[in-house]
Amino acid sequence: GAVVSQHPSWVICKSGTSVKIECRSLDFQATTMFWYRQFPKQSLMLMATSNEGSKATYEQGVEKDKFLINHASLTLSTLTVTSAHPEDSSFYICSARDRFMGGSPYEQYFGPGTRLTVT
Amino acid sequence: QQQVKQSPQSLIVQKGGISIINCAYENTAFDYFPWYQQFPGKGPALLIAIRPDVSEKKEGRFTISFNKSAKQFSLHIMDSQPGDSATYFCAASLNFGNEKLTFGTGTRLTIIP
Fold first, then answer.
1. Contacting residues for A63 by C-beta, under 8 A, at least 6 apart
2. Torsion of CA A38, A44, A46, A51, to 10 degrees
3. Cβ neighbours, 10 Å, residue B2
4. Residue A43: which of B41, B93, B105 has the nearest Cβ?
């Protein structure tokens, strides 16, 4: 149980184009999803927190107009990188928290990640 | 004050040995401390987690030791195996994990035969 999928697993796009990454909770409902970015051999950097049905909360320094996040349902959140540039090339990882997990702690389940390469 | 410092950056341990990774935090309000294992090209997976009301938690070969007064916690991997070779991240959160995770910088562990 508690499986999170991401699609695509890797994508190559040309500079100036937009790319959408999907994050799905397959066997649970997630009121909250998180989007991270990870550069090679570095730690995960939280980009934004996404709550179902409301606007995402972006971390300081993350451009909300460039990284569009939509959490339209309890099982799907999307990250759209708009007007991508080579410096946006990175490993993007989402995580989701189970809506119905009783008590604490509130475990986050991570997706397998999406490798984005902008040429 | 939100930082979590992790050491060492890389670690090489012989098969069968004990791998020890340390983390330190500043924010005394943190109340949930998980450890994640990440293989190349994959997302992190939760290994084990602890709350500050206990000093140690063991699950199989993995043990978390927690020192609240020193604001430090560590991961011990007993009988380390080549399959344990991965990057390990400590993290901390508020509200028993209900808030965002603050990750350490990661430790690349290599287990040699």
1. none
2. 100
3. 12
4. B105
Question: What is the per-residue pLDDT across B88-108, written as a single tens digit (0 to 9) for each?
Answer: 999 999 887 778 899 999 999
User: What is the per-residue pLDDT across A26-60, written as a single tens digit (0 to 9) for each?
Assistant: 988 888 899 999 999 899 999 999 988 888 999 99
- Token look-up 């989007």 returns A35
Q: Answer with the residue of higher pLDDT: B18 or A101.
A: B18
The Cα B25–Cα B39 span in angstroms is: 25
Taking CB atoms and an 8 Å cut-off, how many pairs form between chains A and B? 61
Q: Which amino acid is at A60?
A: Q
Judge whether residue B72 has pLDDT over 70.
Answer: yes
Higher pLDDT, B77 or B51: B77
Tokens of A64: 């909300």
- Residue scoring higher pLDDT (B9 or A104): B9
* Cβ contact B33:B58 at 8 Å: no
The tokens describing A33, both together, are: 């999803």
**What's the whole-number mean pLDDT along residues B59-67?**
96
Contacts of B38 (CB under 8 A, 6+ apart): B44, B45, B86, B87, B88, B89, B106
List the 15-44 stretch of B: residues with Cβ below 8 A of A. 32, 34, 36, 41-44
Mutate to test the interface with B, among A23, A33, A110, A115 (most CBs of B within 10 A): A110
